[in-house]
Specification:
single chain, mainly beta, 13 strands
Length: 132
């Protein structure tokens, strides 16, 4: 069983920064792909950033240059550093794990993408609110 727990959310003004943390426990394998997803009110959950089991990372175009995903295997932690936050980043942020190996894949352009449906383990989420 995999357990994930997010922390680090909060309220900030536009232009500010936050670092989200996700602690993993249970049988989380270092071979699992990991990701950060977000869901704004009234919208579908969308991928923000992913990290495959080889340590290659990707972020969504909407957050490129502002968000960075990283993992500390020794501490069983996943992080999302968010800089230059914008009001449209306001959402519940979720940490997720994928053991199928299909959650992060290379598309026809050899770019790493994230497939939300392949992530089978989810945390409870942490709220991020950005005011203008």
């Amino acid at each position: 069983q995999v357990h994930l727990g997010e922390s680090g959310g909060g309220s900030v003004q536009a232009g500010g920064s936050l670092r989200l943390s996700c602690v993993t426990s249970g049988t989380t394998s270092r071979r699992y792909a990991m990701g950060w997803f977000r869901q704004a009110p009234g919208k579908q959950r969308e991928g923000g950033a992913g990290r495959n089991n080889a340590g290659i990372t990707t972020v969504a175009d909407s957050v490129k240059g502002r968000f960075t995903i990283s993992r500390d295997n020794d501490k069983n932690m996943l992080y999302l550093q968010m800089n230059n936050l914008k009001p449209e980043d306001t959402a519940m942020y979720y940490c997720a794990a994928d053991r199928t190996g299909l959650g992060c894949y290379y598309n026809e352009y050899d770019q790493l993408e994230v497939e939300r449906s392949q992530f089978g383990y989810w945390g409870q989420g942490t709220q991020v609110t950005v005011s203008s």
